[in-house]
Amino acid sequence: MPTPSMEDYIEQIYMLIDEKGYARVSDIAENLSVHPSSVTKMVQKLDKDEYLIYEKYRGLVLTPKGKKIGKRLVFRHELLEEFLSLIGVEEDKIYNDVEGIEHHLSWESIDRIGDLVQYFTEDKSRVDDLRETQKKKTTNN
């Protein structure tokens, strides 16, 4: 099981490959705001743990194991963003909140949040009711 730090790298690599078709150490470093040497160390560890294949100066490729986890991590991140937006968290706070909580929730909790998001988005009146409840609470305070 990858550590939270490993998850951040796998997620970022997955997104870069999905977006650009490749992921370079420099791109990963820039997107994660870390030094390229830190990326190289982590990429070597991810290679050793068989999440990716890394060849110095040639780039890297996610293994099937790495792709599967990367896809799930991106899903988790996007689901949590959708959930926080749905419950009315201000847009400018969502990304940092997701970064702060995503590694601390079990996959079971993520699945239940997914159920809740689905419940609310299947029927717009449910979201409207939630917004009305929030408005009343704000007005009463």
Automatic annotation (TrEMBL):
The keyword Membrane does not apply. SUPFAM superfamilies: Iron-dependent repressor protein, dimerization domain, Winged helix' DNA-binding domain. GO terms for molecular function: DNA binding; DNA-binding transcription factor activity; manganese ion binding; protein dimerization activity. GO terms for cellular component: cytoplasm. Keywords: Activator, Cytoplasm, DNA-binding, Manganese, Metal-binding, Repressor, Transcription, Transcription regulation. The keyword Acetylation does not apply. Central regulator of manganese homeostasis. Homodimer. Belongs to the DtxR/MntR family. This is HTH-type transcriptional regulator MntR. It comes from Bacillus solimangrovi. The lineage of its organism: Bacteria, Bacillati, Bacillota, Bacilli, Bacillales.
